[in-house]
Design goal:
With about 375 residues, the chain is an alpha+beta fold. The chain is built from seven helices and nine strands; from the N terminus they run H-H-H-H-H-H-H-E-E-E-E-E-E-E-E-E. Strands 1, 2, 3, 4, 5, 6, 7, 8 and 9 form a nine-stranded antiparallel sheet that branches. A hairpin with a 5-residue loop joins strand 4 and strand 5. The longest helix is centred in the middle third of the chain and has 66 residues.
Length: about 375
């Protein structure tokens, strides 16, 4: 009986380092701010820059909200598991207490070791009372936390849906503004030569070599080497497969494959000349940037491209959108059932190099 009472005092839950409810609430505030920014961006003098910032604000807030939902689900499951464990142990405790309650008082005073044993047993039970009350308070707090987390998750899922609609509106507006640009690209490559290279290439590497064989074009920036080790990723995502790492089919590519959210905005990591923008083989839409003579940055797998061959985007300028349906599904994944992929390759002097030497070391 005393052993059953002692066991219940050992049920303590480990606290989380972060508060998922507070994170979700903060992300919801950021989504509301992004929605306000969208209205202002439509009236801005530089609508492209304003809309680009708005889309990024939506994506950052949505990412934070998904993270809050995931952490809330992890926290809720932890509480539920602890409550399930407590239920079995508390059942033993209640059974022991019921035995004590049903036992006549005069019998409780009888102990095999005599009066001293009875006194010691009584002292042990009295010492357990504060611990039992502490555990009862903890269980009450766990139940309150669980109810708050579940309520927060329901609200956050609704806010996630609304935020995705706002992000789609911002992306559509940005795409419309980009399509309405007037004038011709600053650099005009020979369309016949470009088409010949495109038709004669049976791989991404062959196409890149063909582009590099063309005469150099004006508009290139200098000093691209200063970006080594600190080049930002063109899209928010996580590294799925590294340089020359084989996939399940045994195919290894000399670049990175990133897992990204559908519909995400892809931006130029650095000022560069667009040597090519459009569909290529089975890579979807491909953008080839030339930041400096001797370097190519290949971004493959876009669903929508904003750039034209010959454009000269600046650092952070929008290039296009990731393919895929951004509408979420519920679950511990934070409202996203699947992710899309984007391929990145850096070539130096006609040879692919490991992107790890160039991109900032913040991939998660």
């Amino acid at each position: 009986m005393l052993r059953a009472l002692s066991i219940c005092l050992c049920l303590m839950g480990a606290p989380l380092a972060a508060n998922p409810v507070a994170e979700a609430e903060a992300a919801a505030d950021d989504l509301q701010a992004a929605a306000i920014a969208l209205g202002e961006a439509r009236q801005a003098d530089d609508r492209i820059a304003a809309l680009t910032q708005t889309v990024r604000a939506f994506e950052d807030a949505l990412g934070a909200l998904r993270g809050g939902i995931r952490q809330a689900e992890i926290r809720a499951r932890s509480i539920e598991a602890r409550l399930a464990q407590d239920e079995a142990q508390l059942a033993n405790l209640l059974a022991a207490l019921q035995i004590i309650q049903r036992t006549p008082a005069q019998v409780l005073l009888i102990h095999p070791n005599g009066p001293i044993g009875s006194a010691r047993a009584g002292m042990m039970v009295s010492e357990l009372t504060p611990g039992l009350q502490l555990k009862a308070d903890q269980l009450s707090q766990d139940l309150a936390d669980l109810a708050l987390i579940r309520q927060t998750q329901q609200v956050a899922q609704t806010q996630l849906q609304s935020g995705l609609v706002g992000a789609q509106e911002a992306r559509a507006e940005l795409a419309r503004v980009m399509s309405e640009r007037e004038g011709v690209p600053p650099v005009r490559p020979d369309p016949a030569l470009l088409q010949a290279i495109l038709e004669g290439s049976d791989s991404l590497a062959a196409f890149a070599l063909g582009l590099e064989a063309l005469a150099l074009v004006p508009g290139q920036t200098q000093g691209f080497g200063v970006w080594r080790g600190r080049l930002p990723l063109p899209v928010s995502g996580s590294l799925l497969r590294g340089y020359n790492v084989s996939d399940q089919a045994g195919v290894a590519r000399p670049g990175w494959i990133l897992a990204v959210e559908p519909g995400s905005l892809v931006s130029s990591p650095v000022a560069a000349t667009v040597r090519y923008s459009g569909p290529l083989l089975d890579f979807g839409n491909v953008i080839v940037l030339e930041p400096e003579a001797g370097y190519l940055l290949i971004i493959a797998g876009l669903g929508t491209v904003f750039t034209r061959t010959g454009d000269i985007p600046g650092e952070g300028d929008p290039l296009g959108l990731i393919a895929g349906d951004p509408l979420p599904t519920s679950g511990i994944d934070g409202g996203q059932s699947r992710r899309e992929t984007l391929y990145l390759e850096i070539r130096q002097n006609q040879q692919p190099v490991d992107p790890v030497d160039w991109f900032a070391n913040d991939k998660d």
